[in-house]
């Protein structure tokens, strides 16, 4: 059986992540209940609205399900997905993130004037040296990173992509470009390596 990566499908742009995985010839599955994780080798949490997503995760039991899953599998979160995977949120009391990566994030932190923009970011692990065109949509900012969290990409000196052993997060939307390098990195360097 070939490897299958789950995409959390409670809300948000999960279909575009599935399309990106398809381009890489990786099977994907929409995850809506904890049981759906059973045959997944990794999981992607898409962007969307983090407060709604966290509420739906609590209602379906996926909050606990994802925590258990992440103890042995790789997980990637984009934008609202990063917010959900973080350890804490600045100025936000209503929602409790899953705490799977030691970062603190601030939601909607670019302010109204520039709440959505596209810019190039350098991702040093990509050996071809080409920048990644990053789409930021009402993006959060990473305000704190703990030890054991590695910066993977910066935009104007600010970390916008980071990872620990099994969790990869970015404040932008790699599924909205035609560039599959971030999904490819996640599958090859994290999902495949944390499978056994
Ligand atoms: N602003 C959204 C939030 O705080 C995230 C936006 C996104 O995922 N594109 O949940």
**Total beta strand runs:** 12
User: What is the second-level CATH architecture?
Assistant: 3-Layer(aba) Sandwich
What is the overall number of helices?
5
Strand content: 25-35%
Bound compounds: glutamine
Q: What's the CATH superfamily, by name?
A: Class I glutamine amidotransferase (GATase) domain
Strand order of the largest sheet: 2-1-3-4-12-11-10
H/E element order: EHEEHHEHEEEEEEEEH
User: End-to-end distance, in Å?
Assistant: 15 Å
Which geometry do the CA atoms define? globular
Total domain units = 1
Rg calc: 15 Å
CATH class: Alpha Beta
Low-confidence stretches: none
> Which percent range fits the helix content?
10-25%
Write the layout of secondary structure elements.
Blueprint: E1 4-8, H1 14-23, E2 27-31, E3 42-45, H2 50-60, H3 62-70, E4 74-78, H4 80-85, E5 88-89, E6 103-106, E7 116-121, E8 132-137, E9 141-145, E10 150-155, E11 158-163, E12 167-170, H5 181-191
């Amino acid at each position: 059986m070939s490897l299958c990566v789950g995409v959390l499908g409670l809300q948000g742009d999960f279909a575009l992540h599935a399309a990106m995985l398809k381009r890489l010839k990786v099977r994907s599955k929409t995850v809506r209940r904890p049981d759906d994780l059973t045959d997944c080798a990794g999981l992607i949490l898409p962007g969307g609205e983090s407060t709604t997503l966290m509420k739906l995760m609590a209602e379906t039991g996926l909050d606990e399900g994802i925590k258990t899953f992440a103890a042995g599998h790789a997980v990637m979160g984009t934008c609202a997905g990063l917010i959900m995977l973080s350890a804490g949120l600045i100025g936000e009391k209503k929602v409790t993130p899953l705490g799977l990566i030691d970062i603190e994030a601030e939601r909607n932190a670019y302010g109204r004037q520039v709440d959505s923009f596209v810019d190039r970011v350098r991702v040093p692990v990509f050996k071809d040296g080409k920048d990644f065109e990053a789409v930021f949509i009402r993006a959060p900012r990473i305000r704190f990173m703990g030890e054991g969290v590695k910066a993977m990409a910066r935009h104007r000196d600010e970390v916008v992509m980071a990872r620990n052993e099994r969790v990869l997060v970015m404040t932008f939307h790699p599924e909205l470009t035609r560039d599959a390098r971030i999904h490819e990195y996640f599958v090859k360097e994290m999902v495949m390596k944390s499978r056994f």
